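Entry 14. Ran structure prediction on the chain below.
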Amino acid sequence: MKKPELLVTPVSVSHIETLALAGADAFMIGEQRYGLRLAGEYSREDVAEAIKVAHKHGKKVYVAMNALFHNEKISELEDYIAFLQEAGADAIVFGDPAVLMAAREVAPDMSLHWNTETTATNWYTCNYWGRKGAKRAVLARELSMDTIVEMKENAEVEIEVQVHGMTCMFQSKRSLLGNYFEYRGKAMEIENRKEQRNMFLHDEERHNKYPIYEDENGTHIMSPNDMCIVDELGEMIEAGIDSFKIDGVLKSSDYILGVTKLYRKAIDLCIEDEVQYDEQKDGFLEEAKRLQPENRPLDTGFFFKETVY
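Output, structure tokens:
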């Protein structure tokens, strides 16, 4: 069986070497101005250094440019993409077609990964963007296992699937938190996400707490649980999924390291001996639960939810 790439989101440049040694194959980095919901903030100097460190260990670096770009930022895209090409980035992750058009002008050989968060829901759309120049499609998080396998069977591009971490439930370009506190008569400056780790929306009816934070791209409300399918990887590995992503947004470096080690062990065992993996997968899940913060339950996301027509 083909071994899928293990894609991880490091919180800093120094974190990359640790994760590389733990078994990560690729890293998603970027800066808030161009990328959405990243585990860490990377200046241009940080991006260049991160690429050097990752390449030293034979790993890849993908840079996020998946924000929604209004007219005032369009003129910056070509310069940033040219910088990424010079720095040696292995791919750019995009959603806005403006990034695709800019890349055609200044970096026509740059690999592009199409990621609009929610609209990669069928293989035909993935292949459409493949014909436009995308090498990979990042699937929406709201898909069942059966749908994912079907899409891989028909896709002409690489397929990436998130297997662990929180997901975004809602984003608004508006500063909803700042507006709320202003309405309440309290001044509130937009803080960075590290200072906002413990901000939640409480839903008393469902007994859920939704992490919420605000940055340059607006307001983000995240899922109340973390998805985890470390014990259900076999079907996707057998189907040939190209990349498994661990999303570490709002998580500590130690947590991301522990989860990376766990998935590395699970993936390798599933490839080498699927029967033994099946025997040990319950233990992998228990280990994942031990890594979890108290306020972050685990679930299987949408992987096993039935579609209602």
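The two ends are 34 Å apart (CA to CA). Will compare against last week's run tomorrow.
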